Amino acid sequence: MPVTVRFSLKPVFINAALVALFVCSAPVSSASFEYLYIEANEGDSSGGHSAIQFGDEVYHYQHHDSGLIRLLRQDKQEFHFLYRFLQNRRIHLNHVEVSEDTFNMLREHFKLQFLAQDQQLKQLNDLHRDRVLIQRLLHKPGFDDSFSDADSSMTLQLKGVGLFYAGQELSDQKTGRRIEKSISVQSRSLHTMELLHKKIEQNYGQDFLLHRREQITADIKALKTGHWPEVKPVLSEDNFPAAINSFADSYEDYLTGLVAIKVLMEEQPLHPDAFFVTHESVTPEEKHVLERLRDQLIVSLLKSVNSGRPDWGYAVLVNMARLLAVDLSLQLGQWVYIDDFAVDSEWISADQFAEYAEQMQTQINDALDNLTRTRKALLNGGGLTEANYSKLEMSANRYFELLKGRQHKAIRYIGEKALPTKSIKVPDWIVPKLTQQQLAKALTELDNYETKLLQELAEHYRYDLITRNCVTELFRTIDQALLGQNREDADQSKQAELVMKESTERLGGNISASYNFVPFVSFQSVQDRYNVTASAVLNSYRGQKLAKLYANNKGLMTLLRESNTFSSTLYPYNSDDALFVFFTDEHILLRPFFGLFNTVAGIGQSVIGFLSWPIDSGKNLKSGATGILMSLPELVFFNMRKGSYKYLSYNQFVNEEKSKY
Amino acid sequence: MRLYSVSLKHILLYPALFSLAFVISGCSFSYSSESISDSTSSIISSPSSISGKSKKYQNEVADYTTAYVKSSQPGADYTSFLKGLSDIAAKEGVTNWDQDPLTYLGIGIGLKKANVEGVAYETYKKNFAGGDSKKMENIQSGYESAE
Lengths: 661, 147
Hints:
The structure holds 2 protein chains of 2 kinds. By secondary structure, chain A is an alpha+beta fold. Chain A has 3 domains: 182 residues, endopeptidase fold (from Nostoc punctiforme) (Alpha-Beta Complex), CATH 3.90.1720; 278 residues, no CATH class; 105 residues, no CATH class. Chain A is 55% helix and 11% strand. A 6-stranded antiparallel sheet of chain A has the order 4-3-2-1-5-12, sandwiched between helices. The two termini of chain A are 28 Å apart. The N terminus of chain B is likely disordered.
């Protein structure tokens, strides 16, 4: 009989070897999973959160702004960095021993459900995009002023086209002005475009591009709206919906293909905003690698331009942009990269950058470290892959973007993509030849189908605080996995018996989703009923720093200094947190007393916020009200206020987790 | 004494009720269609994760293929399947997934995991590979490796 090591729910920090088992990147036993309870803090999941960890993957449910609850899958380290470091919450963990068969069954079921739901919601999004396109075609600009073009511009986008054209350029056909602006650098790429054009003609014939353009034009004109079944879509939590081709997707793909051909035929240079030239020299070794990469990109381009995949146009645009960047790097002897930030990237202002100067410097150091390592990785044998080049591009984008902050400029902090996306709105070019009647009929069909789909999605995934939340759905998914094939065969009453039997045999006991909707209660239930062989508490960022500090000095002055946000050396005030005075996660007995201070601080901020409403649009008032609400639970011993961090180093997190064990 | 009790009620009971409401209001909240990992992808773009990326990509393709074929027919239109592959590849920084053997190995593994056999398997293999013999070979290799 295995020895069971049990810990109570109170924070007991486990020994290094045990933590290593859970956190280090080394693979864990294939016959165990972890049930996680994430402590409460201000912000989202203020009542705590739950998740399940299979090896390197964490699955958890999140309440989405659509009102639905979504299953998410995250890399283990990303998850721990986000919750334990940025959100500064402790994670309690139950290690559940199961047979390999049970482990695989549960993991596969969670995976399948994640993929199925993703696809179901994608279909909903496709329907929205199709609706916008049909409405746009029904109400052509100038024909009907009641139609707003704003939604259309936001929703219908040509991915990758912004690498070569600005928003209005495709419609206006005015490109001369900006070519002149950057002629010194871009004229160098003309030769590459000519060469590429010639190679395509050599491979596929002189009129290949012309014929391809005519074909696509004909295809667009013949494009039909999607066919939405009249029957109710049959969804279940682990079933892919039947594949329906998106009308908008097809239209965008065709147009992107047309733009790719236009770029090739007109030998269009890169848009000036689509790339940046660095002062980093290309070393002789890197030069060889870049020459090989250039050859590889030409081969890929020749294949992409004649590919049968629907989005070949996007692949051609990305490959062309990268080819030009690599070629420019070789010509200039300095690294040139494509800008891979998305159009809707999150910015931070120059003032914010200055305010967090120390953290930003750490981010810059991390980014430089990553860039150096990715450059080296590219030189290794077998290192020259498209995925590795994408990684290099991302690292370079991050580093050089952060550097701009030092020159007192606003920077894009989040929004890089592994592939450049640079989208522009769909231009008014060729449209499908559909009559008003056909479009109106299609819109009605779409409406009916969408209504049914929405009803069914709500039936399966509508969030409910008590009956369908992030905890209940974890247990429900486990139950479904245990039922397996018997789900359809057995009736309702027998299903409950089956689940009970399977759960007891495989997990050690059964947990009812109905009575375990509170995160910490569910954690206790798992500890009591499943085959839990060990439990642990993984410390939060501040908790770790505090433990280090106390190891050296646990004098009264240190305790007092670190007990509050004003004098703490470990917590710089984060404007995302509502104002509070005392951290309440350490001293349980003092918690109501500290909570009272925090409540008063919240009231104070609310009063000031009321007065400053005209200036800050109620931001301070909202923050103050949040502060009051978040502090009230502390009056009855519930810990809420821990503080959170905005700009911590991911590299530091990874290194600290490694170095400790 | 009574006054004291009323005060105590105000001090403890109401906050307790508020507390309960907060304590049970679990669950992370997402404001957009993007997941948390999307919002932190820049920060965590550490090169340490380069190794193992290929395997991860292949597994993602395999899982997606399994899920897809379980709900479709061999003669179905494959455009949406191919678009799904593009999305998976894009997350790994790959545009030319249709020229990458890992994609087809992953498809083969996925077909095996979905227990597709016989004529149905041959139909899927041919359609997913677009009739390309090299790609079909890779699908076959993936299929056999998963046995």
